[in-house]
Structure formats: structure tokens, C-alpha cells
Design brief:
Layout: H1 3-12, H2 15-39, H3 43-48, H4 64-70, H5 73-106, H6 112-121, H7 127-141, H8 147-170, H9 175-183, H10 188-199, H11 201-217, H12 220-225, H13 233-243, H14 248-268, H15 270-282
Helix pairs in contact: 2-14, 4-14, 5-8, 5-11, 5-13, 6-8, 8-11, 11-14, 11-15, 13-14
Length: 283
């Protein structure tokens, strides 16, 4: 570890910094706690006062809003659509990005550096620029309004960052390790799956978390490319607000479920996420 890294670790381990980070974390959780409590209150209580008033009468909390949510077919179907969009879009980006990252890092082929520069250049292309052209293309291909079309869009725009991140991480693997595996008779595919993928676990986990959060919380792409039968939870909640406005007893539990799932994914893989982010800083 470098001198700067040791200094940073020493500062973070100090009691004052830990206390400050704890306070920041508590403030960061306040909206989530408020939304959770609001989702457990009746519409009458929500109209009567803010969510913090529940501490004076905690017995008034109820799961009636969640039961009503489960009876709302639009919300439940949209939650299923969100999973059907997010999981394949994340897995495809991780798998294809890993293969491309390994190829750019360790395989020799004509135009490799120029191709990688082109991939890096795609990072600066904003999503908004491609919405209308791709919408027209999907319309001609019959993909507009389908879950598969949204997955393709997210995969296409997620791959440049995935290739850039994983190529830089895979390039740090010692060459001697790969050459030893080749001497033992390992081909490129076996080398990739048996050596590179296990070593790239932290970076792959970081990429998966980034992609999962981006796709799960996306509303712009879904608002353009989905219809009533394929819309995810973000669009469904926005539609509920536009149509009914005051149905907070459905919106609050729906919004909390939409938020708590990516939070659970992040906390489940936070160790790998931190390892992947810090890997490049200490090498």
C-alpha cells in the first residue's frame, strides 16, 4: 500500500472520522426511514401530519397499504417487468464486457488499440441523443414497446463503461500467471473462465452493482421504449401519480419496494464493491 493509502486508512480509522461518517450515514437514511414509515400509515394519518408523528402513536402502523399494493395489478406487473429488464441487462453487460475486456487486455488482433479508443469514445455519447433514432429503429424491427427492446438499449449503453472498467482491471493481472496457465495447456476460454474471472471478481461485482442500479432506477429510457404492458416500476409509479395524484397509500409502499431492492443488492455486495473500487488505487 502506498504512503497516501496508509495515511487515508489511518484517518478513516480515527474515532472522530468514524463518528462523522456515522452521522452522515444516519442523515442519508432519513428519507428511506420516512418512506418506510409512510408506507405503514393509513391515508387518514398521512393527511393528518408528517411521518415523524408516528412516534407518538406507533400502534397506528398497519400493513394495509401493502395489501392494497399487491391487489394493484399495474404495480405488481411493473415490478415483474423491472426484474425481467434489470437482471438480463446486468448479466449480459457483465458477461459481454468481461469477454471484451479480456480481449482488449491480453489478446493481440489487428486494430485492437483503435477499437478500444472507439469504445472509450462511446462513453461520452449521452443517452438522450440516441433515444429518437433508436426508437425509430426499434419501431421498424418490431421491438418498440417490448421488454427485449429496453434490454437491448441498456446493454448497448452499458457495454462501453463495462469494457473500459474491466479492460483496465484485467490488464493489472500478472503476465506470468497467464503464461503459466498457457504452458499448462489452457486455451483462451479456459484461461478466461478459470483464471481471469475469479481474479476479476471485485471489479465484476462493482460493475454489476453499477449496472443493476442504473437499469433498476431508470425512468427516461423506460418511459420512451415501453408501453402499458412492459413498463417497469418507475414508470408505473409515475403513471399512478399522474392519474390519481393523492393515492399515497399505494405510492408509498410501491416506492419503498422499488428503493429497498437496489439497497439490498448494494449492501449484499458492498465488500466486493469496495474491493473493486480500491483495487486501482493501491496498485
Amino acid at each position: 500500500m502506498t504512503t497516501a493509502g496508509r495515511w487515508l486508512v489511518g484517518k478513516v480509522n480515527s474515532g472522530l472520522v468514524r463518528g462523522f461518517l456515522l452521522v452522515v450515514g444516519l442523515f442519508w437514511l432519513v428519507p428511506t426511514i420516512g418512506l418506510l414509515i409512510s408506507s405503514l400509515r393509513s391515508p387518514e394519518d398521512l393527511s393528518a401530519g408528517g411521518w415523524w408523528t408516528v412516534f407518538s402513536e406507533p400502534s397506528r402502523l398497519t400493513f394495509a397499504s401493502y395489501r392494497k399494493l399487491l391487489e394493484n395489478g399495474d404495480i405488481t406487473d411493473s415490478l415483474v417487468n423491472t426484474v425481467l429488464i434489470t437482471v438480463p441487462a446486468t448479466l449480459l453487460v457483465v458477461f459481454i464486457g468481461s469477454l471484451a475486456g479480456y480481449a482488449f487486455a491480453w489478446m493481440e488482433f489487428p486494430g485492437r488499440d483503435w477499437c478500444f479508443l472507439a469504445v472509450v469514445g462511446l462513453l461520452v455519447v449521452p443517452v438522450q441523443v440516441a433515444l429518437i433514432p433508436i426508437a425509430e429503429l426499434f419501431g421498424k424491427l418490431g421491438l418498440f414497446g417490448s421488454v427485449f427492446g429496453v434490454i437491448l438499449f441498456h446493454v448497448g449503453f452499458g457495454l462501453p463503461f463495462a469494457v473500459f472498467l474491466l479492460r483496465n482491471f484485467f490488464a493489472e493481472i500478472p503476465r506470468e500467471l497467464l503464461e503459466a496457465a498457457r504452458l499448462d495447456g489452457a486455451g483462451e476460454l479456459r484461461l478466461f473462465f478459470r483464471v481471469v474471472m475469479p481474479l476479476g471478481g471485485p471489479a465484476i461485482a462493482s460493475l454489476a452493482i453499477f449496472q443493476f442500479l442504473w437499469v433498476w432506477n431508470d425512468m427516461l429510457v423506460a418511459l420512451v421504449f415501453t408501453d402499458a404492458g412492459s413498463q417497469p416500476i418507475t414508470v408505473a409509479l409515475q403513471t399512478q401519480v399522474r392519474q390519481f395524484g393523492n393515492n399515497i397509500d399505494v405510492l408509498a409502499p410501491g416506492a419503498f419496494i422499488s428503493m429497498v431492492i437496489p439497497l439490498a443488492v448494494f449492501f449484499a455486495f458492498q465488500r466486493q464493491f469496495v474491493s473493486g473500487v480500491m483495487a486501482g488505487a493501491v496498485k
